[in-house]
Batch of 2 targets.
Target 1
Amino acid sequence: MEKWIEKIKDILKEAHRLILDSMKESLTIETKSNRRDLVTQVDKNVQKFITNQLETLFVNHKVVGEESYTGSIDLNGHVWIVDPIDGTANFVKQQKDYGILLSYYNDGIGQLGFILDGNTGDIYVAIKDQGVFVNDKRIDIKQNLSLKDSLISVSVEGLFIRNYGQKISSKAFGIRYKGAAVQDGLMVINGQTGAFLALQSGPWDFAAHIVFAKELGLKCLKLDGSNRQANDHGFCVFGQEEVCRELLEIVKGIDNENC
Ligand code: IPD
Ligand code: CA
Ligand code: CA
C-alpha cells in the first residue's frame, strides 16, 4: 500500500505543477450549470492526466472525474473519485484557495483520501484504519469544540439563499468561508474551524472528506443526520460531532419554519 500512496502523491504533485504552469497561459473559461459554475481547460487537462495515470497503475479500477461525470457513480468494485480542481472559481478569480481532491473506495468503503492544498502544495492523506498524515507527519484533532466556541464555514447558498446565516452567526463564535470544499475542509482538518456546511455539492466535493472524517473522529453528515456516502450530492456538514449536531438542529429548525 505504501508504495502506491507514494506513487499517487507523485501524480498529485505533477498535477499541481500542471495547474501552476497553466497560470502563465490564458484560460479558456466555460460555464456549466450557471454563470458561477466554471470549468477551464486546466480542469479538463488535469482530470485527463490523473485519470490516465491511475488507469495505467490500476487496470481493473474505475476512475470517476467531475468533468466527465455522467449522472451516477456505481461504487461496486475499485473506484477512484477525482475533483481535478476544487475551487475553480477561486482559481480563475484569485489564483489561490483551490486544490485537488482524490479518493479511493472499494465496494463503497473509503480506503484512501487525498487532499492537495493548491496554496502550499501540501498533500494530506487519510489511510483507512491508519490515520491522517500531512507530508508524512501524523495529525490529530482536539475533539472539544462546541458551536459557541467555533468558527464555522457556511457556503454562500447556506448563508443567504436558505437564510441560515443570521442564526448560525448568532450561535457560533464566527463565520469564515473560503469558497472551496478543499480549503473549507482543510480548516476543519487543521482544527481552525469546527465545521463546514455546504448546500450544493457533488460526490467529488466530499468523497475524500468522508475518509478523513472516519480517521480523525469527525463527521460528514447529510441533512437527516445520517452519514454521507461517496456518491451522495447536495447538503453536507463536515466537522466535529457536537458542532455538526448543533448546526443540524439550527438548519432543520429554519427549514421547518419555512415549510
Ligand atoms: C465547488 C466548490 C464550492 C462549492 C461548489 C463546488 P468546483 O467546486 O467546492 O465550494 O460551493 O458547490 O461545486 O466546481 O470548483 O470543483
Ligand atoms: Ca468541487
Ligand atoms: Ca472541480
Note: The first strand starts at residue 29 and ends at 31.
Target 2
Amino acid sequence: MKIIAADVVVTSPNRNFVTLKITTDEGLTGLGDATLNGRELAVVSYLRDHVAPLLIGRDAARIEDTWQFLYRSGYWRRGPVTMAAIGAVDMALWDLKGKAAGMPVYQLLGGASRDGLMAYGHASGTTLPELFDSIRAHQEQGYRSIRVQTGVPGLKAIYGIAAQSTTGERYDHEPAQRGAYPAEEDWDTRAYLRHVPTVFEAVRNEFGPDLPLLHDGHHRMTPIQAAKLGKSLEPYDLFWLEDCTPAENQEALRLVRQHTTTPLAIGEIFNTVWDFQALIKEQLIDYVRAASTHFGGISPLRKVMDYAAQYQVKSGFHGPTDISPVGLAAQMHVGLAIHNFGIQEYMQHGAKTNSVFRQSFTFTDGYLHPGDQPGLGVELDVDEAGKYPYEVAYLPYNRLADGTVHDW
Ligand code: EZ4
Ligand code: CO
C-alpha cells in the first residue's frame, strides 16, 4: 500500500480547518486534521512544502516508522506547527489502516472498553439566568456533564462566554474571531477569584449535587491564585479545574496540588508525551487534556494514556470546534479503546462544517461513539470544502486595566 498523493485541503465553513488527505496506489484515502487555530497557514506550508514530498512512495502501513521518521529526521522537533503536521499524517495512516482492514480504528487499538464516551458541553452566560438557561439547553441536548463559564462583574468580554446565536447558526468560529487583528478583551484576576465561587454555589443550589461540573481557568492565574481558587471551589465538588496556571511552567502545579483536592486537568496546548512526564509521574494532575491534532496524532495519544494509566490519571481530550471532525473522531477511537478514559469535551460543529465533513459518529443521551465505519469514519467532501475559502481569523488577547498584556 504505497502513498501516491498527499494533498492539503484548507476550508472555512463555520471556521478554518486544515485537512491532510493521503491517497494510496490501491485508491484508498485517509484523512488527518492539521488545524492550528489562528496559525493555520503555517501548518499548511509545513505539510505542503516539507512533509508531503517525503510521503510519496512510502508504505502507508508503516505508521510508527513514518511518525518516528518525520519526528526525528526533522531535527527541530516538538512545537505546535510540527506536531499538528505529524499528527495529521499519523491520523491519515490510521484511517487508511482501518479502511484496508475493514475495521473502525478503535478495533485496531484493542476494541471498545466501554459502550460510549461521556461528553461535556460548554454552558456559559454573562448573568446567572443566562447561564442557567444555557445549562438547561445543554441538558436538553443530552449532556450529562457541563463546563461552566460566566461573565465577571466589571469585565466586558472574557474567555468562554459564547455569543448567543439568534440565527440558529452555531457559534463555532469562537473563540477565534474572523478579522485581520486579534480582538482585545479585559481581565482582572481578583474580581474573577471573588466571583467564580458564588457562581458555582448558585449552580449547585439550582441543579443539585449530582451534575458533574467543570471549569476552565485558561492559563490566567499564578500558582497561589490557582491554589486559592481550587480551595474555594472544593465545596462545589468540581469534576475538574482546567488550565489553572500557564502551561509553560509545570512546576506551578506542584504548589496548586499541595493546597487543594479539586481535581486538575491540563494539556490542551501540550505537544508531546514529555510535556506530561513529570506531571503524571508526580501525580500532579488528574486528567490529560491533549488533543490528537496538536499532540502528533493517535499513536502518541495512546502512548501517553498508557503511561498515565499507571498513575490513575485519566483522559479528558481537548474537543473544541477548532479540532475538526477528523481530529475529534481520532480521539474518540482512542477514548473508546483505552481503559483510563475520563471524559470527552464536545462542543459540536456547525451545519456547514458537517456538510464538508461527513461523519458517522453519534451523540446519544450524552454519550459519543465513533461509529463502526472502517477507519476513522469521517469523509471530506472536497467540492463542498471548495465553497468555503480560508478567512483570516485570530484568537483574542487580554489586557489588564493598566494596559498590561495578560494570559488570555
Ligand atoms: O481556547 O480551542 O477548553 N477549551 C479551550 C478552547 C481553546 C481554543 C483555542 O483554540 O480552552 O476553547
Ligand atoms: Co481549555
Note: The chain is about 35% helix and 20% strand.
